[in-house]
Amino acid sequence: PPLAPLDLAALARSVVAELAPEAVARDQALEWEDHRSGAAAGSRCLVPGDETLLRVLLRNLLENAIRYAGPDARIVISLAGDAVHFVLAVADSGPGLPDDQRARLGERFHRPDVTAASGSGLGWSICLRICAVHGFALDSGRAPGLGGLRVTVNGPCAV
After folding, report:
1. Residue ranges per domain, the chain?
2. Is the Cβ–Cβ distance between 82 and 67 less than 8 Å?
3. Which N-terminal stretch is annotated as signal sequence (predicted)?
4. 58: which of 15, 32, 83, 125 fits an S-S bond (Cβ 3.0–4.6 Å)?
């Protein structure tokens, strides 16, 4: 698809607002944080993107955090970076994933053993593909300060 500059910060805030009722229903705290520095702080975060695909990406990451973090979890969606590079993260205080399970996230139809929640096991593969189309990187690890899973999307800003 053709990529055009779009405001990732506004899109992320929109997805957070759309999914907030699901988090509230599970007694979860859903938080948005903007950690960008310099002239980028608090401004638009223009990235080369397809809005429909990036909405699918953000919804998938946030829906998974809501689904798997558990009741009373804290979920933080943050945006960091500067005028040339961004890092968007979804982190939670849930149980996280063991390293061996995280390593298998890209396998189609694979679902981690640590949950009984429903799903097709295609979400991470879809997210990887959307990131590849946009020239973004997708990664996961332990959430510092929260202890659960932290998923990051990073890439260039639009010039």
Report:
1. 4-156
2. no
3. none
4. 15
Q: What is the DSSP letter of 43?
A: S
Q: Look over the chain and give the mean of its residue pLDDT values, rounded to a whole number.
A: 87
The domain defined by 4-156 carries CATH number 3.20.20.70:
no
Tokens of 123: 């979400």
**Residue 84 main-chain phi, psi, to 5 deg:** -115, -15
Is residue 143 within 8 A of residue 92, CB to CB? The reply is yes
13-66 tens-digit pLDDT = 999 999 999 999 999 999 999 988 776 777 889 999 999 999 999 999 999 999
Tell me how long the chain is.
159
Q: What is the pLDDT of residues 98-112, one digit of tens each?
A: 666 656 565 555 445
Beta-bridge mates of residue 33: 78
Q: If phi over 0 gives left and psi between -120 and 50 gives alpha, with beta otherwise, what is residue 33?
A: beta
Q: Cα(154)–Cα(86) distance, rounded to whole angstroms?
A: 5
Give the pLDDT score at 110. 43
First to last CA, the chain: 19
pLDDT cut 90: percent of the chain above it: 65
